[in-house]
Write a structure and sequence with these properties.
Layout: E1 16-19, H1 25-36, E2 40-45, H2 49-61, E3 65-70, H3 76-90, E4 95-98, H4 112-129, E5 137-143, H5 144-147, H6 159-173, H7 176-182, E6 185-191, H8 198-206, H9 210-218, H10 224-236, E7 244-247, H11 251-254
Parallel strand pairs: 1-2, 1-4, 2-3, 4-5, 5-6, 6-7
Length: 255
């Protein structure tokens, strides 16, 4: 099966997925993989509609189904509209990939990282869960630098983002019992620094040499497409709710 081609008997045939922050990078690559496995995909973007529409066009050209829906996840009305768009466009909502994150951007306020990486994640999950049926799955994408921030310090430039993403993971995990009552499973995918992401670019700008230093420590850094493949696997993986999938270089953080 090619990355975007739909395989016979694809595991996500008839399912609908929302991937937040999917107009580029890990989110876009994950969305293409899920579409290739048969899912109809809602491509979410905050500002760049042409970029999101290009992802939709690529999915459709490969025989998949997708729609682009704009929305700022820190806006409650946008969150609700995004969740509803899955039902309106494709008739169900079966998968939510919480990929969107940020906090290193300038001009969005001192509390933006926490509003996006914690509050908006909780709002998005709740809006989606109210529309999901038993058997649905939520996947939260984070970084080792955030997941292990309480036991392993990170770069100064990234610490506010790491702490806000960790706060988001904690807040989401507190909802697991509520999700279990609905028959919805929740999985976390944590990755090392990913080559080619906007976060890595901003970190390199703030601390020149950061990428090479992390690559040497880890031995290898995953590419966007390689990490997206691991995220996509967790959408259908037979793992218990609350499972954390550690992707690449975790030994540095765990030992």
């Amino acid at each position: 099966m090619t990355e975007q081609g739909t395989a016979p008997g694809a595991s996500l045939a008839g399912k609908t997925a929302i991937v937040t922050g999917s107009s580029r990078g890990i989110g876009a690559s994950t969305a293409k993989i899920l579409a290739g496995e048969g899912a109809a995909v809602v491509i979410n973007y905050r500002q760049k509609a042409p970029r999101a529409n290009k992802v939709v066009a690529e999915i459709e050209a490969a025989g998949g189904r997708a729609v682009a829906v704009g929305g700022d996840l820190t806006n409650a009305d946008d969150v609700d509209a995004l969740a509803q768009a899955a039902l309106d466009s494709f008739g169900s909502l079966d998968v939510l990939v919480l990929n969107a994150s940020g906090g290193m951007e300038s001009g969005l306020g001192e509390d933006y990282a926490l509003r996006l990486n914690r509050d908006a994640q909780v709002s998005m999950l709740k809006a989606a869960a109210e529309r999901m049926k038993p058997g649905a799955r939520v996947v939260f994408v984070t970084s080792h630098q955030a997941h292990f921030i309480d036991s392993m310090p990170t770069m100064d430039a990234y610490e506010p983002v790491a702490r806000s993403k960790r706060a988001g993971e904690v807040a989401l995990r507190e909802l697991i019992p509520w999700l279990e009552e609905k028959g919805i499973t929740f999985v976390v995918v944590s990755g090392d620094m990913i080559e080619g992401t906007i976060t890595a670019t901003l970190l390199e700008r703030a601390a020149p040499g950061a990428i090479e230093s992390r690559r040497e420590a880890a031995g290898k850094l995953y590419s966007v497409d390689e990490f997206a493949a691991e995220v996509a696997k967790m959408v259908t993986a037979d793992v218990p709710t609350g499972h954390t999938e550690l992707v690449g270089g975790a030994e540095h953080f765990t030992g």
